[in-house]
Amino acid sequence: MKKLVIGAFLIAFGVFSFNGIQTSPQDSNFSLQKFSAVTLGYDRAMGEKTIKAAVIDSYYRQICKNGKIIRWNKNSMPLSVYVQDSRDLPEYYRDVVMNAFLSWQRASEGIVRFQFVENQADADIKCYFISGNNSDLISSHEFIVSGNRMTNAVINFNKSDKKGLSLDSKQLFSSALQEVGYSIGLTGNSNSIYDVMYPVGTKFNTEITTRDLKSLALVYATVPDITNITLNQNERSKLYTSSEILNTLNVPVNDNTNLNEYAGTDIASHLALAEQYRKLAQYDKAAKEYQVVAQSKSDKRSRSEVYYEIAVMYLDAEMFDEAKSVAEIAWQIDENDLTITLPPLLNYYMKRSNTAVQQLEDLLKENPYNKYAYKLLCQIYRDKHHENLLNSTIRRYGKTAGVIE
After folding, report:
1. Quick one: CA dihedral 280, 285, 286, 292, positive or negative?
2. Which CATH number characterizes residue 204's domain?
3. Structural domain span for residue 117
């Protein structure tokens, strides 16, 4: 029944042919190796091919583009964390923020570790709850830096939303996860809507993804430009420079590259070309390069995820016919929790929120563990400021599709 409903949706909109997009895999000598966050996070023992695969499947490049690598010396672990306690706060506020730190600690398998302290003067990371300023922002973060030395980091959370209401636990947890990510070195944003470090504040991301972890591990495999304790020569020798990591891609593609004269030679260069074409709003050319990346994937799920990203690219560009066509390809390659959310995602982008909500409700009734449907439904309710419906969704599906532990 599920396949019939989704297929009918796409046919009703009209399926358009998309030249150059194929669904059959092509042979490739490029394969992603199993990624070990702990090993990558601690030294440069991993081979170049594994590093290259990690860079491709992370947002490490965005972190490097955002400026200097700023992170804690791993010998400082566990970092001391102070979370303000106050009688005028809901009881769960402090616990939710502390849980965000512990979630990063568990997910990173030891790359970052924390201990909570009651004295703010002793803390590396200080978390405060402040009166809001009527903005949509829930929180903010900053490093306190003197020269090339980081002394501490400060995270401020608003006590309430701009309507003066207390933040619900999921909303606060999502924001706290992102702020902790910034405070441990993830200073660049992801372009995937499902990563914790996706920049748009309305995203209801409560799960640390593989891409988040790979990005973190690469940051902690890099000699930092700014840190709290200067690394000695022995420590530096075990780490990469950011240039060494980026050079594993060996992709001379940037804003000055003549794309008409440059041809991709490996998966990394095809991905770089796709991103450059996307930046230049040459979306069809970007899609063809993404296709090459998709065909390199050894399993259907990974290939379908690349086509999903192509569909999102077209949606962002409001090229809805192309988005519908690629959405069908993604779904045909592999019907999974991610691809079956494409019909409601299309409706959401096309401002048919009521239809999208009904489709997402149906998906969650059939599978209450579908985290993608859950996140999108929460996002729609937050965008529409339907707080009662948002809270109802959290109560019904938060324990199955949500990730607060």
Report:
1. negative
2. 3.40.390.10
3. 65-231
